[in-house]
Design brief:
Number of strands: 0
Protein name: Pilus assembly protein Flp/PilA
Strand content: under 5%
Organism: Sphingobium vermicomposti
Pfam families: Flp_Fap (PF04964)
Number of helices: 1
Order of helices and strands: H
Keywords: Membrane, Transmembrane, Transmembrane helix
């Protein structure tokens, strides 16, 4: 009977590790997504300012 409990506990640990691995991959993906969004937002802000400066120069000249 002890062997059966041991096998069942090992099987449930494997499932837990798979779930934990999926969660870890999900967290990594979330961090990468946040980094991409932050970088794109930063570039967008600089680009908007650049085109604003171009428009101002065109209007003034």
């Amino acid at each position: 009977m002890g062997g059966l409990i041991e096998i069942i506990s090992k099987m449930s640990l494997l499932r837990c590790e798979r779930g934990a691995t999926a969660i870890e991959y999900g967290l990594i993906l979330a961090l990468i997504t946040l980094a991409i969004i932050s970088a794109v937002t930063n570039v967008a802000d600089k680009t908007i300012n650049m085109w604003g400066n171009v428009a101002t120069e065109v209007i003034n000249n």
